[in-house]
Amino acid sequence: MAEITLSRASRVSKVSKVSNLRGVALFYIMSLIGVFSFFISFPFNGNDTFLVNHVVAMARVGLAPVMKYIVYFLGIISLIDLYARRERFFRDGANIFMSVAKMIGFIMLTMVVFNHGPEFLLTPEAGPAVLFKILIPITITVVVAAIFLPFLLDYGLIDFFGVLARPVMRPVFKAPGLSAVIAVSAFLGNFSIGHIAVDMLQKKGRLTMRESVLIGTGFCTVSVGFLMLLSSAFGLDQYWNFYFWSAFIITIVVTIFQARIWPTSTKPDRCLEGCTPNLEKEFKTNLLRNAYNEGINVAQHQKSFVSREKLILKESILVVAAFATGVNFFATGGVLIYQYTPLIQYAAYIFYPILKLVQIPAYDLWTASQACAISFLDFSLPMIVITQGGEEMALATRYVMAVVPVSAIIFLGAFIPCIMSTSIRVSLFELIVIWFERIVITILIAGVVAMLYF
After folding, report:
1. Strands (DSSP E) along 330-380, which ranges?
2. What is the largest CA-CA distance in the chain?
């Protein structure tokens, strides 16, 4: 009997060792692939960037002849999804508004794709610009990034760094340590990568509803590539290092304030209904060893890679399908509103006294105020408005306006349809409030920085 018991114990021990070795191998191999995919830049085809962006660039070239039809097909999927999940998408006023916007967006997309409709919509600066400069790039980016995300999220890497970052992230940001990894991946890719990551983690019980809202609206900002575009457009190239790091730090500081004020602070600190809580563990000592053990444990018990890819691709296609209609409506509408109505000018009065408070020169105030107001429609529109100020616009003004689209984060053109197509529990009204809070705090902080530096 004792021999049988020892034999069983021996077999259990061997199985445990094999399982542990499998976890160690998966942790290292998959995590290294994830780090290489999102964080390691290398030159290829004349571009020096990380693997995901290289794949995106190749896909944009290879699929260029058919991409507008792919986006149109995704628009059809969006309409089917609206009908299939109508109880969710038509449950209240804000969701009804977003759903109707998607339907109108599909009609506009049809006109642009097949080049048949009113002239004001088909001008190169309106519908076609939104299709080729926003919808197609973001569709390719989301799908490609989603394919590589499991390497970053599913095999212990995010858990390893989450344990290490928790002592800082929890008291300062009231967020789990893993949000630091999401912030970096979103900053290197774009906000949609962050939203998909948050959505995946929330459904797995890794984040509470409050944490998901904070990370989704506070850390998922525009990419480094867009910062480079802003720097060039605003004539800040010679101040690149200062602009890049100060914009990043200001975005983080604004998020510290956001975590402590309504509506983010009052969100429920519990997991989604139907999700089994699997929240970040707290370790008081031996952080490095516990972080490593946590990462190995997650990798060891992960589901099959193929099943995760199938699920992620399914969810990603639904997200980009929502882009094809919702983003099209809001981005195109934003361009038309600015071109043909005085609404942006009226909204600009809200920001005029705030900009004046931080000593933006009088001759720049009106242009800067309009740029702040229009940032809610799309993150690229302030660049169009502010560059109309010409070379005489003060350097401090250009700096503040270059920081605003990065730190304010939220906009109708793509961000809001993206986040509302996920399971992150935040309403349209709450997103408007968060945008206003962030843009005011950003102006005040960036204005002080500009006064001290320039």
Report:
1. none
2. 93
- Separation CA 298–CA 303 (nearest Å): 10
How far is 214 from 269, CA to CA, in rounded Å? 11
Most confident of 145-149, 202-206, 254-258: 254-258
Q: Using CB atoms within 10 Å of the CB of residue 351, give its burial: 0 to 12 exposed, 13 to 18 middle, 19+ buried.
A: buried
Buried b (16+ CB within 10 A) or exposed e, 47-77: eebbbbbbbbbebbeeeeeebbebbbebbeb
Taking the CB of residue 260, how many other CB atoms lie within 10 A of it?
10
Alpha carbons 62 and 64: distance in angstroms, whole number: 6
Gap between the Cα atoms of 305 and 367, Å rounded: 51
Q: Is the peptide bond before 263 cis (omega within 30 degrees of 0)?
A: yes
Are the beta carbons of 405 and 230 closer than 8 angstroms? yes
Q: Which two tokens stand for residue 377?
A: 């429609």
Report which residue type is found at 379: F
Q: How far is CA 241 from CA 246, 291, 392, 413, in A?
A: 8, 32, 23, 28
DSSP at 155: S
CA distance 434 to 429: 9
Mean pLDDT of the chain: 83
* Measured distance between the N- and C-terminal CA atoms of the chain, rounded to whole angstroms: 83
Tokens of 39: 């964080």
Task: Tell me the one-letter amino acid at 454.
Answer: F
Model confidence, pTM? 0.71
Bigger pLDDT: 348 vs 275 = 348
Backbone angles phi, psi at 43, to 5 degrees: -75, 140
Q: Are 378 and 413 in contact (CB under 8 A)?
A: yes
Contact by Cβ (8 Å): 20, 300: yes
Residue 25 has pLDDT above 80, yes or no: yes
Residue 419: predicted pLDDT:
85
pLDDT at residue 6, as a whole number:
45
Identify which of 228, 237, 150, 249 has the alpha carbon closest to the alpha carbon of residue 193: 150
